[in-house]
Backbone:
């Protein structure tokens, strides 16, 4: 695994150099969903610091088992409002907030836990029915609503583009998220930061980096194929 991880880090560094960005401006999130705790521990030992999970129940066992490892945990799957209380306890950053209802639930439980919960707003750039996320044209209104909540802190945007087996076909969706980020920045919405762009996975992360990704979510290239 160490070899695979080093290869991914080298590719991130190269992609950053290609667009004159410092490599340390991009954070690697190792997507550990479906992988057991002992495999995740191996990844941490190999140098992984940030882990991405899609399912609350599965993540809870791993976060508790690996509590001494001091890893940062990211929730990157679809989050139902009724799981908000668990997400607040478990995760350092929640990437997939797509409604004011969900933001309100996170705010409520963050307040109860005496926590400011960092979140990203998930944008459905391609308007795919199969994917979660707010539409581009509704994002500013959602952010203005979330900005009024005291216990959540918006750090940026996330997207999951359509699946193509060709990075260049995905690039326009990454570029669209970056342009949306820039437009939101210019609006200066109170209590909203636009520091992070979570986009890019094993098949297309170089294109995502070239379009401005700060968080790349990589599973297969680190852990191997899922069974």
Residues:
């Amino acid at each position: 695994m160490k070899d695979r991880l080093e290869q991914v880090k080298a590719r991130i560094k190269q992609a950053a150099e290609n667009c004159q960005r410092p490599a340390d401006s991009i954070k690697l999130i190792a997507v550990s969903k479906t992988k057991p705790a002992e495999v995740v521990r191996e990844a941490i030992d190999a140098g992984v610091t940030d882990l991405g999970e899609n399912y609350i129940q599965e993540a809870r066992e791993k976060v508790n088992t690996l509590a001494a490892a001091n890893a940062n945990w990211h929730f990157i799957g679809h989050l139902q409002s009724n799981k908000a209380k668990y997400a607040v306890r478990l995760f350092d950053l929640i990437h997939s907030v797509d409604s004011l209802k969900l933001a309100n639930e996170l705010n409520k439980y963050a307040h109860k836990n005496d926590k400011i919960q960092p979140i990203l707003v998930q944008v459905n750039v391609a308007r795919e029915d199969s994917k979660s996320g707010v539409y581009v044209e509704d994002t500013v209104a959602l952010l203005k609503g979330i900005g009024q909540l005291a216990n959540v802190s918006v750090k940026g945007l996330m997207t999951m583009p359509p699946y193509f087996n060709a990075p260049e076909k995905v690039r326009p969706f990454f570029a669209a998220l970056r342009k949306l980020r820039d437009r939101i920045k210019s609006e200066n919405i109170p209590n909203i930061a636009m520091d992070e762009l979570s986009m890019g996975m094993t098949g297309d992360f170089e294109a995502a980096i070239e379009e401005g990704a700060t968080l790349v979510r990589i599973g297969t290239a680190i852990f191997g194929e899922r069974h």
